[in-house]
């Protein structure tokens, strides 16, 4: 190892002071200086020895020592470096205080407030507005309690940011705060009372990320289910009225009301102004709306499914799931082949396709069969089959889908590479990086800026090759 960095990493302070005139400002292969290493490790003595010589330098990620210290919540280092490095931002336009908000670095945030409370990022968000956009009530409380800028226009922009980020509870709190600060209480308490917690973003841990995906899908499915139930209720009321009228007719009529079905023994009109609409379903559904075909497909029973396809294909259950989606999810290749002509391209209530189901589970042969019909289709939020593969480290499927779905993004800018980085899959990152390393989230972050070098050294090394 280089003698300079040997002294740095070995905390040989006397050697560092002696070698500094000649070796200071040297950078390792990650672009890190001695001061950045001190910031990363929280070594105040080393930082004090080097900050006057190495301040304002950047590593391969575009970070200064202050930005590194802020991300890792090293308040003593932040206090030392804020006066000299506070003007520097990340390449995505984020000042150090926004980095503190992003990483819940509350101690560093408090240190930075006197220096950067009025700074804005590339989206025009102040630290308060950014915390509201991300749905972080504890950070909102800290800024409101410790900050000095509480002008009406700043509170208005923060309220708007909370609404844009999907956090109406925080927006309502800010309205109360603006009306009467003394009685508003704490934002975190207000959010807890309303039964809502802080939101998640792409840089959150994997568990929260997965939970958000599931919640979004379930909310969409619930809305669709409620819509269908309302429609069925109206339809049942109509059928009941028709049945009542039919009973009043002089000629003898058999009226059978089954699942969404009206059947007349005599097809002739039963009376003036009475029209019948046939809505036949000659099969029973289970409580989730699954048809006999769906149940046979789920079990992989080809022989039972074959005679049902002609009459029951293209139906959905209450979640919008089709028989093809079930076959794809369970890797029933023969059933997929039989169902593709009838159901390819159909979507569940959330927008999920059969290809996404297969990609999620790594069913390569099924993905090949569905590729022509469903590649490029997205969920309501912009999610793709490639993202499903990346989030689950399905490298064979990633290779298959890459040419048709690369660089596609969700509404917040998330790409398949971002998902692979968040979930910590270096093999998937290696496949996706050539095409997507420049893609940015809405907040301006590339996948490289999301990597925690200490936890994901292999991924960091892969992406650093594209950020030299």
UniProtKB/TrEMBL annotation:
Q: Where are the ANK repeats?
A: 288-313, 319-351, 350-382
Q: What is one Pfam family matched by this protein?
A: Ank
Coiled coil keyword on record: yes
Q: Which PROSITE patterns match?
A: ANK_REP_REGION, ANK_REPEAT
Instruction: Name the UniProt key words of this record, in alphabetical order.
Output: ANK repeat, Coiled coil
The coiled-coil regions, if any, are 208-249
Q: Does the keyword Coiled coil apply?
A: yes
In terms of PANTHER family, this protein maps to:
GH07239P (PTHR24120)
Provide the protein name: Ankyrin repeat protein 1
